[in-house]
Design brief:
Dihydrofolate synthase/folylpolyglutamate synthase, ATP-binding, about 425 residues, Mur_ligase_C_dom_sf, alpha/beta, Protein-Tyrosine Phosphatase, Chain A
Length: about 425
Amino acid sequence: MTYEEALEYIHGTYKFGVKLGLENIKRLLELMGNPQKDLRIIHVAGTNGKGSTCAFINQMLIEAGFKVGLYTSPYLEFFNERIRINNLPISDEELAKITKYVKDKIDLMISQGFNHPTEFEIVTAIAFEYFKRMNVDFVVLEVGLGGRFDATNVIENPELCIITSIGYDHMDILGQTIEQIAYEKAGIIKEGSTVILGLQRYKEAIDVISKVCKQKNANLVEVRSDYKIVKNTLDGVIFDCITPKGIYKNLEIKLLGVHQVENALNCIYAFEYLSDKYNIGTGALVKGLLNAKWNGRFEIISKEPLVILDGAHNIDGMKVLVDSCKQYLKDKKISAVVGVLKDKEYQKMLSEIKEVTSDVIFTLVPYQKRAFLDNEAKEIALDYGFDFIKDFKEAIDVSLKKAEKDSAILICGSLYLVGPARTYLKSIF
């Protein structure tokens, strides 16, 4: 199997849709010898901040000298990004080899009368197999959707569970209330496990997680908001914080926004838990926070003109983005290229972004079945007083032409827009 054939096979399973449940993935992994059982896994769920939290913890463990597997979704620019070891994406050759191995097991399970695994189940199986073959010390594993029935939730004994900020997203699947959504996220909590609960916007989320921890006899560690921002500019954020176990001064992160400080706190609490068991010094924490990168999240792709990419793709994410604009861009005239998927709370998201922008071009999210049709998008643009340009590249070109010295261009609304936009912008600048 070639790399191209592997990708064609993986993406060809998109037609099997999203099927939440663990029966299929369990059978597939059994046929593969259960590679996940040989891995030391840090499992991360939540609505917002999962990826950044994973990036911080991943980098901290690398700085401590460990070999670290990182599994995230979706990818921004190319598929292999989703499966990495010490920040290096899986090679085309390894992906092809392991996909062939997994496909053979899938053919066998189908012959046994099982359903065909979904795309996400297949990619998760490939990741587990790769990490086992490469003998990694830790895996930082990001949940795909929800938690309880997510394919990553086949793991039985996580080293640590982390639940980041819970908000409204994927409500058609996870439920209409914060309690329902939190319950799905709490599905990653295992009997007797340790759970770090990040800072929450909604008290109901804390109540649900606390209740599930009690039922599962799990040790709940709640992150405290005891931090102080020392410096906050486009060059980075410096902060102090106090936890029940320590005092930290002048920690620096390059990921921008107060919310990223809160994601960094998840890493600090993870450090305090892990350093009791493993050789992870404070220096690894400090360097991990400083050197962590997570592209497409208030990422400055160009300084002249100032162009910022942000993957905010739900209402809470958009509110955080608006706060960041007020913090960093208050002396700028902000224009935006915005594309959202139609299964999101797009009316609320567009109302938020309108608050801080002088003009907006509404565009289509490329290559996505969940994108608006042309006429739907035109109508939405008209309702909000936005311009509409169908092609995102053309929309970016128009924004760049109009840019003045004191302006900032924001490209946001969906990671599925930000990824292709990032590739396109790198070809320009």
